[in-house]
Amino acid sequence: MSVSNICIVDYGMGNIGSITNAFEILGHSVDVSSDREVISSAHGLILPGVGAFPKAMNNLRDLQILDVIKDFAIEQEKPVLGICLGMQLLATSSEENGHHLGLGLIPGQVKKIPGNELPVPQVGWNDINLRHDSSIFEGILDNTDFYFVHSYYFSCERKFVSSTTNYGMDLTASIECKNVFGVQFHPERSHRYGLKVLENFHKLCSV
């Protein structure tokens, strides 16, 4: 098993067990921590997340790790991957239950999925459309299916969108800006191709 170089941030709202198990399947160990020093010294950071945006930001604030996450991404320029709610936390702000500031690592706003004729939240498998080459999608073909569970989506400039998924409208499925990545789907629940996304991120964190 490889030496751990990725830290999964434990702030009380993540699908941490499933992500850890996915890395174990890949043969990689990971740290799970909310300790500032452990986070800062990692080679790569994963922000998981299941639940509400404001509660997540409050938890990160209470743990006093907002600044260390921002430093990790902006000053140290090391790889960060947000998963589901973790991706939404990368945004400038969210309209979930009011107006709330996010980490601001990728400019954008988290908005409610319009009801239209489809049920919200979106739950289940849906294919993604790759918008440009991305290192975390290396070896993955266009129109590959991934597993989604979400009621809100990340609205941002096209240049940050690496893939979309159609659910009555084109929704952002993944984002990317330099060393910061986000996926709205759950790679840890998306079988072989989800594992491939995590393996690709692990490669980015290798030094």
Describe this structure in words.
27% of the residues lie in helices and 29% in strands. The protein has 207 residues and is α/β, with parallel strands linked by helices. The protein has a single domain (6-204), classed as 3-Layer(aba) Sandwich (Rossmann fold), CATH 3.40.50.880. The strands form 3 sheets. Strands 2-1-3-4-14-13-12-9 form an 8-stranded mixed β-sheet, with helices on both faces. The longest helix has 14 residues, at 191-204. It is globular. The mean pLDDT is 94.
Name a few traits of the molecule:
alpha/beta, 8-stranded mixed beta sheet, 6 helices, globular, 27% helix, 4-stranded mixed beta sheet, Rossmann fold, 207 residues
Task: Give the structure's gist in a few sentences.
It is built from 6 helices and 14 strands. By secondary structure, it is α/β, with parallel strands linked by helices.
Main sheet, how many strands, which sense, barrel? 8 strands, mixed
Task: Report the span from N to C terminus.
Answer: 16 Å
CATH superfamily: Class I glutamine amidotransferase (GATase) domain
Unreliable stretches (pLDDT < 50, length at least 5) are none
C-alpha Rg (nearest Å): 16 Å
Task: Examine the coordinates and then state which fold CATH places here, giving the name of the CATH topology.
Answer: Rossmann fold
pLDDT averaged over residues = 94
Overall shape: it is globular
Strand order of the largest sheet: 2-1-3-4-14-13-12-9
